[in-house]
Amino acid sequence: MILVLSTTNRPSSLSQVIAEYYCNYLKSKAISTQLLKLTDLPADFTKTALYAYKGKNEIFNQLIQPLQIAKKIVCIVPEYNGSFPGVLKAFIDGLDRSIFTHKKCALVGVSKGHQGAIIALSHLTDIFHYLGMAVYPLQPKLSKVASPTLAAVKAHQHYLTKLEAQADGFINF
Q: Of 10, 20, 31, nearest to 163 (Cα)?
């Protein structure tokens, strides 16, 4: 099973739109997939589900179950202040390292700016390597996407081609 992770808790985000597209593309290839959205995190998860409270927040525990069983993870990563969202870092920091170790992941960068979250992907690659994950080398960087809609992504037709090429390669990674 491939888990697709929308790595922001911002509602109605472009990351979520792309994550849904990615899931649908994998399903069209008969690949078992599931979407995990950080918008579904309990608002107080840093106080009720992490560290000394690990295992005590039932909503959080149910949310991370697919992450625990997934063999591969695709992260749709928006650029926030030159890196990735803080909610993603808090989420990663609060989980057991074993959730990530010996798994494979693919990264997609999303940005309104011109770099397509390249620095965010670099930071996240370093963290995932530290956690023992294998990171797929093809990392599409979707830049200058002005609105959080699939139509805005489709305006850059080559972006869909890049996403699909990554997905096709990642299936066999």
A: 20
Residue whose C-alpha is closest to residue 142's, from 111, 169, 168, 120: 111
Residues forming a β-bridge with 34: 3
Q: Name every residue whose Cβ is closer than 8 Å to that of residue 139 and which is 6 or more positions away in sequence.
A: 106, 107, 108, 109, 121, 125, 166
CB 144 within 8 A of CB 150: no
Spatial separation of the C-alpha atoms in residues 103 and 149, rounded to whole Å: 30
Among 173, 167, 109, 161, residue whose Cα is nearest residue 140: 109
> Is this prediction's pTM over 0.85?
yes
Assess whether pLDDT exceeds 90 at residue 165.
Answer: yes
